[in-house]
């Protein structure tokens, strides 16, 4: 396998990380980023080139200081592959990625049940199938993400959609595969994917809001994920938004979970119409002007605008990224969202930049792969 990655320290680590995230980069740009002289950078990168960790790529523009074409440095993304798996209540969605989290294969499997042993077996079988289908030599890591609280990147203290408590998923996987595996909360994983390889790249301060089966929130400040033991508890799901609104299962009136989850939306539209509807149908009806559906969807959009305003007011992000399987709400209820945003913002405040993620579950699986990539690259 070309370019075996060994976690580095100091300036070598910074150089490798800069190239991984933003490469190819010229030596002049690298020198500026890591604050090293050209001579020191050459000495530092020589062993990295000899080991195959770094490569020189097609010559770029001429460097007038030396009178010859520059040779930017890059890594070989296909030198390592990773599997990311997002667990829902009934499905394991998997992706195979490169070292830069580029998705090269996807696969999905139903979970036979919620028994931890059978879920662990499904994970390992899915990882093997993805590797075999792509005809690669092997994988360097597996990342698993799920809704709930995860401790020490291995134990699911609480998994809401799998009805798990204190499940040692990391141990179960180690008993089934020799590939390093890491477990993470799904919002944490998606935030890190957005941070390293997505819409948050190059943004020092941004937040991620997700709407779907649950409501999620991730925050990056000074180019670093804000994390704590409570971050994976879904706390923002009970942020109050509309007084007198419907109640969630905990009795909170007009909170984010009661207004914005896909279940809340389809339940409320179904009650208005007097029949069961799916989420996409509810949005379609609202977009087509159905009065009952539009009232529910506009109220949800207004609530989402107030949630965006709260995030913008409290954390002053440069960008707000919105994802999850319910993200189409932003487009269908866009005017109502802006109304909700503006009612809780100062008139002189600029609207935050909003970026929407693809609602496909493969985005979440890619996030799980990024957690494995980070563990592999950073050695932690």
From TrEMBL:
Domain of life (superkingdom): Bacteria
Keywords annotated in UniProt: Kinase, Transferase
Pfam families (UniProt xref): ROK (PF00480)
Keyword Transferase included in the entry's annotation: yes
InterPro entries on file: ATPase_NBD (IPR043129), ROK (IPR000600), WH-like_DNA-bd_sf (IPR036388), WH_DNA-bd_sf (IPR036390)
GO molecular function: kinase activity
Mitochondrion found in the keyword field: no
Gene3D superfamilies attached to this UniProt entry: 3.30.420.40, Winged helix-like DNA-binding domain superfamily/Winged helix DNA-binding domain
UniProt similarity note: Belongs to the ROK (NagC/XylR) family.
Official protein name in the record: Putative NBD/HSP70 family sugar kinase
Source lineage: Bacteria, Bacillati, Actinomycetota, Actinomycetes, Propionibacteriales
């Amino acid at each position: 396998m070309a370019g075996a990655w060994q976690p580095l320290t100091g300036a070598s680590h910074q150089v490798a990380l800069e190239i991984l995230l933003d490469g190819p980069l010229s030596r002049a740009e690298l020198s500026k980023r890591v604050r090293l002289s050209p001579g020191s950078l050459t000495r530092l990168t020589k062993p990295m080139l000899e080991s195959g960790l770094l490569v020189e790529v097609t010559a770029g523009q001429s460097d007038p200081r030396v009178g010859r074409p520059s040779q930017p440095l890059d890594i070989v993304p296909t030198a390592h592959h990773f599997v990311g798996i997002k667990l829902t209540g009934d499905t394991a969605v998997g992706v195979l990625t490169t070292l830069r989290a580029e998705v090269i294969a996807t696969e999905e499997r139903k979970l036979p049940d919620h028994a931890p042993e059978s879920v662990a077996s499904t994970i390992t079988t899915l990882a093997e199938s993805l590797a075999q289908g792509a005809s690669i030599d092997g994988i360097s890591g597996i990342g698993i993400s799920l809704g709930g609280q995860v401790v020490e990147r291995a134990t699911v203290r609480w998994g809401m959609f799998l009805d798990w408590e204190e499940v040692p998923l990391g141990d179960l996987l180690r008993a089934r595969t020799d590939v390093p595996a890491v477990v993470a909360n799904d919002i944490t994983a998606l935030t890190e994917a957005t941070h390293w390889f997505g819409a948050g790249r190059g943004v020092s301060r941004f937040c991620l809001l997700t709407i779907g089966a649950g409501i999620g929130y991730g925050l990056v400040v000074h180019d670093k994920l804000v994390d704590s033991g409570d971050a994976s508890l879904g706390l923002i799901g009970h942020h109050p938004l509309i007084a007198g609104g419907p109640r969630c299962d905990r009795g909170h009136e007009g909170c984010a979970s009661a207004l914005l989850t896909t279940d809340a939306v389809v339940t409320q539209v179904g009650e208005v119409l007097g029949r069961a509807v799916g989420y996409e149908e509810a949005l379609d009806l609202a977009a087509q002007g159905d009065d009952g559906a539009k009232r529910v969807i506009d109220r949800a959009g207004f609530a989402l605008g107030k949630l965006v305003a709260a995030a913008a007011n409290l954390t002053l992000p440069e960008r707000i990224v919105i994802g999850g399987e319910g993200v189409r709400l932003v487009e269908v209820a866009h005017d109502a969202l802006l109304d909700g945003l503006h009612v809780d913002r100062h008139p002189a405040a600029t609207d935050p930049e909003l970026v929407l993620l693809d609602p496909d579950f493969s985005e979440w699986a890619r996030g799980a792969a990024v957690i494995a990539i980070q563990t592999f690259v950073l050695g932690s």
